[in-house]
Amino acid sequence: MKIRPKRLQVGDTVGVVALCSPLAMDKLPDQLKVLEELGLKYKLGKTIGLTGKYLSGTDEERANDLHEMIDDPEIKAIFCLRGGYGAARIADKIDYQLLMENPKIFWGFSDVTYFHNAFHEYCNIVTFHGPMLSSVTKKSLSDLSKRMFQQLFRPLEIQYDENISPLHTIVPGSVRGEFVGGNMHRLVSTLGTKYEMDTTNKIILFEEIGEPLQKIDGMLNQLRLARKLEAAAGFAIGSFTELEIGAKLEDVYAIFEEYLKPLNKPTLAGFKIGHCEPNIAVPLGVEAILDATYKTLRILPGVE
């Protein structure tokens, strides 16, 4: 059983960090409105405003910023400003014992998947796969996306069915297991490292953006050869957006069917989780029940 961080209270202070790619400072005010609307105060990390070709400061600056947020008793949650690239570069510079001793809400997705996976393995804590604050600079978060932040203020069970989005059964059946995963490319990049994802008896979430069908096939094949697919209990397929010209979502599902149907693992696709809007935030590291036959996903609360 993983450690659930304490719930937020209105008036709490949270930290905002840029642990991956940088973001222009002129866009920051719009991003922070989401936190203000939730009644939260915030502290900006030292990585906010740092620039580089594709990293928000040096590896040391980003690791130190994370450590300071974890060690600050006033900070009750840590929100990642944006993804991009850079999480894996500091995975071996993080003090995991510090986070285990000071469990806090950790929120983000995309490149942040690398942190989710590492924190589950080395800190044994629940984390949250949710919209980056930077997403509000492209377009306002939908009301549904905003409502998902409420799971941080009280223990809420996530119940996903076709009232939220159409769902497609790839492999029927029902299964219960720990819900983990995230961005497919980042999960595959853990293979062969000390942060290699553990899929044993778990329900795996996959989402992706901008990858051609050939690359999606290649990633699934690598997971197959690493025996990660056969070890899993089931699969929840989130959003696969910005496909190559001429490719359809049905083509993506056909690739998953080719790899997963022989394993007979319950698999349900079509979840609005990932690079999409709405982007349904979910806790990772908690128990879930996936019913691919009746097209439902129930996830236990992520906070205590």
From TrEMBL:
Amino-acid biosynthesis listed as a keyword: no
Keywords: Carboxypeptidase, Hydrolase, Protease, Serine protease
SUPFAM superfamilies (alphabetical): Class I glutamine amidotransferase-like (SSF52317), LD-carboxypeptidase A C-terminal domain-like (SSF141986)
Domain of life: Bacteria
Annotated family: Belongs to the peptidase S66 family.
CDD domains: Peptidase_S66 (cd07025)
Protein name: LD-carboxypeptidase
Boundaries of every LD-carboxypeptidase C-terminal domain copy: 176-289
Residues of the active site: S110, E207, H275
Domain LD-carboxypeptidase N-terminal span(s) in chain numbering: 14-130
GO biological process: proteolysis
Taxon lineage: Bacteria, Bacillati, Bacillota, Bacilli, Bacillales
GO molecular function: carboxypeptidase activity; serine-type peptidase activity
